[in-house]
Specification:
278 residues; 14-stranded antiparallel β-barrel; 6% helix; mainly beta
Length: 278
């Protein structure tokens, strides 16, 4: 019920916003993995003026931890404006489980785009609150922050082939691997949807997209390192996107993760995209 209640609220908000937009894209997705992680997500992009778009997104996920199940929520709002060819995007987001660990984030990016691709520099500020779980320290809160710097690029190699690359590295205000009061075992999980995946030192991925008509296939490889124990996770995914009507597309994706700490997991997801407006 946790997943379905939150997804219903998100979808209602997105449909309400689309009624006032000149053009919009709505999407909803389901994801599950072999570590018993489950997630429902929804997002939308809305044209609110010439060269200006607003984005809304949210996710609700449940993962199995070592000592307890974790219920994770994510919500994001952003504004994107293009001055052609330079553009800016600013946003704010919330992520986490309010009973254990959550963060309130600010994001900003500056990009240049053209017919052959785009490149952007990105900055992220994350402010974490961790509710201590041990019997001796229960009721206390540990606070720390992280600054992230990243780069995102897309390049059109040919009419049918595109390349993408993005990455982010984080600098934490405290070394959370060395903090004895932070009982990280409470939220450790092998699921890719777990909170552990958002406490990271760095992440990057690269991909190739092959287009044939209105359909496309993409292959992505990536790696992230957790800030908790320094373990690496290597990820490989394959996606297929195809139209099902004039305004509706569907995407299927399979991903394989290989973690130094937890071993291998497999994830499957499906997304529906609806294109509205004139």
């Amino acid at each position: 019920m946790f997943l379905y209640r939150r997804s219903a609220l998100v979808l209602l908000s997105l449909f309400t916003a689309s009624a006032y937009a000149e053009g919009f894209v709505l999407a909803a997705g389901l994801e599950g993995d072999s570590a018993d992680g489950r997630a429902i997500s929804a997002f939308g992009d809305f044209s609110i003026g010439e060269n200006t778009w607003m984005s809304l997104s949210a996710m609700a996920a449940r993962t199995e931890g070592i000592f307890r199940d974790n219920e994770i929520v994510f919500a994001d709002i952003g504004i994107d404006h293009s001055f052609d060819p330079i553009g800016i995007r600013i946003g704010a987001s919330y992520w986490g489980d309010a009973d254990i660990l959550d963060s309130r984030d600010l994001l900003a990016s500056l990009y240049i785009s053209g017919e052959t691709g785009s490149i952007s520099a990105e900055f992220e500020r994350r402010n974490f609150e961790f509710d201590l779980q041990s019997d001796l320290l229960r009721g206390r809160t540990a606070k720390f922050s992280a600054n992230g710097l990243g780069l995102r690029a897309r390049l059109k190699l040919s009419e049918h082939l595109g390349f993408s690359l993005n990455g982010m590295t984080y600098d934490y205000s405290r070394n959370i691997r060395l903090q004895p009061e932070i009982d990280t075992l409470v939220f450790l999980s092998s699921s890719r949807l777990s909170m552990i995946n958002s406490l990271i030192d760095y992440r990057f991925n690269a991909g190739l997209e092959f287009k044939f008509g209105l359909r496309s296939i993409d292959v992505k490889v990536g790696r992230w390192q957790t800030a908790i124990d320094g373990g690496n996770v290597d990820s490989y995914s394959l996606g297929f996107l195809t139209p099902v009507s004039d305004r509706l597309d569907v995407e299927f994706r399979i991903a394989f993760d290989d973690s130094d700490t937890f071993g291998r997991t497999t994830a499957l997801s499906v997304y529906l995209y609806y294109f509205g407006g004139s």
